[in-house]
Amino acid sequence: xxxxxxxxxxxxxxxxxxxxxxxxxxxxxxxxxxxxxxxxxxxxxxxxxxxxxxxxxxxxxxxxxxxxxxxxxxxxxxxxxxxxxxxxxxxxxxxxxxxxxxxxxxxxxxxxxxxxxxxxxxxxxxxxxxxxxxxxxxxxxxxxxxxxxxxxxxxxxxxxxxxxxxxxxxxxxxxx
Length: 176
Prior knowledge:
This protein is mainly α. The protein is 76% helix and 0% strand. The protein has one domain (3-174): Four Helix Bundle (Hemerythrin (Met), subunit A), CATH 1.20.120. The protein contains 6 helices and no strands.
């Protein structure tokens, strides 16, 4: 890992996402913002998650630091956002997300320690996008949309678990 990698644009975006989320979490309640502003905040954080990877690949700025920093930041940011927005979710949803994130973190730690590689799948990106959309939808208080939002949350959660299980399968299969 090189110190100069810290100043690569993808890594700056990743660190910016982490710092922004920590500052929000420490200094504000989600209720301090209107639903529209909350959706914008969540969308910016979610888009930055995609943007850093696209920039890294497009401009050949993939680094060892970014390979480690991005997934760790993703887990921290995601957990902080769920806690920050917890008033908008059922306890079961929060618990299932935390279990999944914990398992993914353990899998990531295993990959890191064992020096194995695991390719990121497009399904993983879709799953993350669905969960970020779920976070955005969770702040909408329109009674006419509650049923649709609940169905979307359930679908997103099932798909999110499916992707994690697929990664686990690939990890086990690759090590046979």
